[in-house]
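Residues determine shape. Take a concrete instance:
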Amino acid sequence: MLRYRSVGTAWLLLLVLSESNAINDDLYRFMEWTREHNKVYASKHDEEAAYKTYLENVEHVRVLNEQYKSRNVEFKLNQFADLSEDEFRRNVLMRPRPAPEHVQNIVKMSKIQPQDIPNAYDWRDHGVVTEIKNQGSVGSCWAFSTCANIEGQWALKGNKLMSFSVEQLVDCDGSQDTVNGNADCGVFGGWPYLAFQYISKAGGLASWDDYSYCSGNGKCFPCPAHGYNKTLCGPPTPYCNMSQSCAAGLKKNKFVPGLKVKSYISIGKNETVMLTELYQRGPLSVLINAITLQFYHKGVWDPLLACSPSDLDHAVLLVGYGTESSLFKDKPYWVIKNSWGEKWGEDGYFRMIRGKSRCGIDQGVTSAILE
């Protein structure tokens, strides 16, 4: 989305040099940050606004680190340092909404009990989790979570681990659930449970390589999927390119042979059931309220600020669990795969407190069932 840089931050450099004959530390760090994250702004005005927001976030991160020091959680400036909280919500997260009430395929009780499974487990150690990816500047996390779950289910059936096409879901899935008032809305958000149903009806998924991701990195501008619901999704993007859309990109002869989604299951809103189902079934798609995750860097995330479980705005992948030991109190946690790139968090992952139902972690847990 960011296109312009004729002289980069040169205008800022000249401004400071004219006033102090030296580059102040904040400006120097901002210039280094723009290079590290390849930031290119549309105009001088946009770059000035980005610098102002960056400085505000420097202070914000400092305060966060003071507040969470006793909890051993750290925050850090990252690729979102030029976004205010409102901009982060609009550009990266989905519109906040409550979890749907599933009426079928619900798992409320597991076959095994927590005492019958290991104290810690991580599916990354078992070859069923693909590499970290980056959704970029659009709300396509739902599609990443969906594909990541299916990747795990596919590998657990003895197939070669591979990445599936997130872009196919963004471009082609216009599924709707009018009872719950939900829809898959491309770059404006969606629901893994609807995406599982789309894949089942479509007959499969292409691989990441055969239908690669481009909608979040400015390399394509696809038109809305067939069935896009303006009432549930809001107005579509003002500009789109039909030659970069589903009609042009989807090739059913490129679907991964043998990959069929039969149905899906919904895990009851219970972290104990989540724990045993994660161990039995493999990585699970989960929804959370992620507004306080913008600058997370490391540690077991247990937000001090309220994060309403009815305002779910981000979809991720639950891959493991464990416990962090300390002198005062042990912290049970979840291990979660994000879609904000490897530079964010703990190499693209984060750990979240387990057993407190924080931020809606147990409200929208689903998994595909493959044929």
Summary: Confidence is low (pLDDT under 50) at residues 1-7. DSSP finds ten helices and 13 strands in the chain.
